[in-house]
């Protein structure tokens, strides 16, 4: 009933839980004092017997009530510290795991699932750490303390209560497998609904454009109904088990009362002791009853944590070396094969060279493996061993982070974060000066735009929604230029932008290629005619390679693609003239 694997992310949580349990034990001692003093007062008013002085009894009753309230407040504060510590540590662990894996995390979980685990999954553990664990340890300790208090009064009553009280956690232990199974289905449905909702929210514009929002709404309704049914199963199971626990608790209390009355009749305990035992019996079963109420809620968090722990403990199967990336080094690929997670053979027996100070282009029809190859080179996908060399260094001989620091992949949809132009640029280089930022903005022809506004402090919206597509892409490029990487991979970086922005970007790419290693991917073959080398891919294989003129003379796959594009471009222009 205690998931030990979760403690590795606790930090100071164990200390806070221990302190909360200790405070609750002090509260229990105050309750015991209250019970004895109250029994003394009742003995005086009902039986006219003095056990303790009335003033002393009332004073100690008042003191016990004050101590109880202080302990409740202090225990609540400790539980809050537990919750804060666990949430912080778990979210930090998830974040660091994603960072360490890079885009490799997508082999295990989708982005929506990561968000769901990091937000709702962590929230579900609040009750487990903040209430259940404290109550779990306190329940057993309190039972032992009460046994030690009642045993000197009457051993038979103490033994009966000691035997019956642990029946509650034993029952919980027996139904644990059933509970976990039901909670697992519940959490799975819960996560599915959350993931589908997030996916629908992100793609709402697309759903509206294709008038598919009605269909998606129906799909969400059906999934939500499935989740409702699982929720009802969970609630039904909780109510049934709580009913059984109540029978055990009330039955145990009744048994304790009967034994106490029997001992009173036989003269083994006094009327004062009988009253005190009656008051203490409640404390025997209340902690266990509270534990039951928290058990089912806590198990939802534990079920959520199973997938979280599976992800956090996922082996990356990557052993890095300690070598440093060599500047101005070539990239060499030797006999490389790459398979997707489902076993699809995406790249087949590739032998390639990407020389420093040159621009190498990758072309071919959609689905031929260009972007996959780019992602493998940039270490966004898991790389095959003994296949990729950066200079004289095999990929896994390099220190962790060396590739991501020296190779940057620029796509047509580079994310622009909400904030200022400055805050977006500083992501590329946190040591960049204002002068360097302005210079790079001038290079991508954006400074003239921003200088008329608030300069580097110009506000931009998430995904650059207050910029044109071309401006957003050029800002993304400016950030990449500030990073000053050794290798730049431009993956369809000029797609879906205006002609002016395309010309600016292509000009910059050609300038960079004189000093850096540039890999350029584009469907528009007219933009690769000046490349130093062109690799033509088809179904994951290299079918041709060479300069533009050489490939055109071959009259092969490249020439066919290029000629077809020229015909389409010519047709489009003629159509435009006719209009």
Automatic annotation (TrEMBL):
<dbReference type="GO" id="GO:0005524">
    <property type="term" value="F:ATP binding"/>
</dbReference>
<dbReference type="InterPro" id="IPR003593">
    <property type="entry name" value="AAA+_ATPase"/>
</dbReference>
<dbReference type="Pfam" id="PF00005">
    <property type="entry name" value="ABC_tran"/>
</dbReference>
<feature type="transmembrane region" description="Helical">
    <location>
        <begin position="52"/>
        <end position="71"/>
    </location>
</feature>
<feature type="transmembrane region" description="Helical">
    <location>
        <begin position="239"/>
        <end position="261"/>
    </location>
</feature>
<protein>
    <submittedName>
        <fullName>ABC transporter ATP-binding protein/permease</fullName>
    </submittedName>
</protein>
<keyword id="KW-0547">Nucleotide-binding</keyword>
<dbReference type="InterPro" id="IPR011527">
    <property type="entry name" value="ABC1_TM_dom"/>
</dbReference>
<dbReference type="Pfam" id="PF00664">
    <property type="entry name" value="ABC_membrane"/>
</dbReference>
<keyword id="KW-0812">Transmembrane</keyword>
<dbReference type="InterPro" id="IPR027417">
    <property type="entry name" value="P-loop_NTPase"/>
</dbReference>
<dbReference type="InterPro" id="IPR017871">
    <property type="entry name" value="ABC_transporter-like_CS"/>
</dbReference>
<keyword id="KW-0472">Membrane</keyword>
<feature type="transmembrane region" description="Helical">
    <location>
        <begin position="273"/>
        <end position="298"/>
    </location>
</feature>
<feature type="transmembrane region" description="Helical">
    <location>
        <begin position="159"/>
        <end position="179"/>
    </location>
</feature>
<keyword id="KW-1133">Transmembrane helix</keyword>
<dbReference type="InterPro" id="IPR039421">
    <property type="entry name" value="Type_1_exporter"/>
</dbReference>
<feature type="transmembrane region" description="Helical">
    <location>
        <begin position="136"/>
        <end position="153"/>
    </location>
</feature>
<feature type="domain" description="ABC transmembrane type-1">
    <location>
        <begin position="20"/>
        <end position="300"/>
    </location>
</feature>
<dbReference type="InterPro" id="IPR036640">
    <property type="entry name" value="ABC1_TM_sf"/>
</dbReference>
<keyword id="KW-0067">ATP-binding</keyword>
<feature type="domain" description="ABC transporter">
    <location>
        <begin position="331"/>
        <end position="564"/>
    </location>
</feature>
<dbReference type="InterPro" id="IPR003439">
    <property type="entry name" value="ABC_transporter-like_ATP-bd"/>
</dbReference>
<feature type="transmembrane region" description="Helical">
    <location>
        <begin position="21"/>
        <end position="46"/>
    </location>
</feature>
């Amino acid at each position: 009933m205690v998931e030990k694997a979760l403690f590795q992310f606790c930090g100071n949580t164990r200390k806070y839980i221990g302190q909360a349990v200790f405070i609750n034990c002090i509260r229990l001692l105050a309750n015991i004092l209250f019970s004895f003093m109250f029994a003394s007062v009742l003995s005086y008013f009902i039986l006219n017997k003095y056990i303790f002085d009335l003033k002393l009894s009332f004073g100690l009753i008042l003191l016990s009530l004050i101590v109880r309230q202080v302990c409740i407040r202090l225990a609540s504060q400790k539980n809050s510290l537990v919750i804060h510590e666990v949430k912080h540590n778990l979210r930090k662990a998830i974040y660091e795991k994603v960072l360490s894996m890079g885009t490799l995390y997508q082999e295990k979980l989708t982005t929506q699932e990561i968000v769901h685990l990091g937000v709702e999954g962590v929230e579900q553990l609040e009750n487990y750490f903040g209430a259940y664990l404290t109550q779990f340890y306190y329940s057993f300790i309190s039972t032992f303390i009460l046994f030690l208090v009642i045993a000197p009064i009457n051993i038979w009553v103490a033994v009966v209560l000691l035997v019956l009280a642990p029946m509650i956690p034993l029952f919980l232990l027996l139904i644990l497998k059933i509970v976990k199974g039901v909670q697992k289905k519940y959490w799975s449905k819960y996560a599915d609904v959350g993931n589908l909702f997030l996916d629908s929210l992100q793609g709402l514009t697309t759903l509206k454009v294709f008038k598919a929002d009605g269909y998606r709404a129906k799909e969400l309704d059906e999934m939500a109904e499935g989740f409702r049914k699982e929720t009802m199963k969970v609630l039904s199971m909780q109510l049934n088990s709580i009913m059984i626990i109540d029978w055990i608790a009330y039955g145990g209390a009744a048994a304790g009362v009967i034994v106490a009355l029997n001992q009173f009749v036989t003269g083994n305990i006094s009327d004062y002791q009988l009253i005190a035992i009656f008051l203490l019996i409640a404390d025997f079963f209340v902690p266990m009853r509270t534990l039951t109420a928290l058990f089912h809620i806590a198990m939802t968090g534990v079920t959520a944590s199973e997938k979280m722990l599976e992800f956090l403990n996922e082996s990356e199967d990557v052993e890095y070396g300690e070598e440093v990336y060599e500047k101005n080094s070539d990239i060499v690929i030797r006999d490389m094969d790459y398979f997707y997670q489902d076993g699809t053979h995406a790249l087949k027996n590739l032998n390639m060279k990407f020389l420093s100070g040159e621009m190498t282009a990758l072309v071919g029809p959609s689905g031929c493996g260009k972007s996959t190859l780019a992602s493998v080179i940039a270490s966004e996908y898991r790389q095959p061993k003994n296949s990729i060399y950066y200079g004289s260094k095999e990929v896994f001989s390099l220190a962790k982070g060396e590739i991501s620091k020296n190779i940057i992949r620029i796509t047509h949809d580079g994310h622009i974060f909400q904030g200022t132009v400055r805050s977006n640029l500083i992501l590329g280089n946190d040591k960049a000066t204002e002068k360097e930022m302005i210079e790079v903005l001038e290079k991508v022809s954006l400074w003239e735009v921003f200088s008329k506004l608030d300069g580097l402090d110009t506000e931009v919206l998430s995904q650059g929604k207050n910029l044109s597509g071309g401006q957003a892409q050029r800002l993304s490029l400016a950030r990449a230029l500030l990073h000053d990487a050794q290798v730049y991979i431009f993956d369809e970086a000029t797609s879906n932008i205006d002609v002016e922005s395309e010309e600016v970007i292509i000009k910059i790419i050609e300038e960079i290629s004189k000093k850096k290693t540039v890999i350029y991917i584009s469907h528009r073959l007219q933009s690769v005619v000046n490349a130093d080398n062109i690799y033509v891919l088809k179904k994951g294989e290299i079918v041709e390679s060479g300069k533009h003129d050489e490939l055109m003379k071959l009259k092969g796959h490249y020439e066919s693609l290029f000629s077809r594009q020229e015909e389409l471009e010519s047709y489009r222009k003629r159509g435009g003239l006719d209009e």
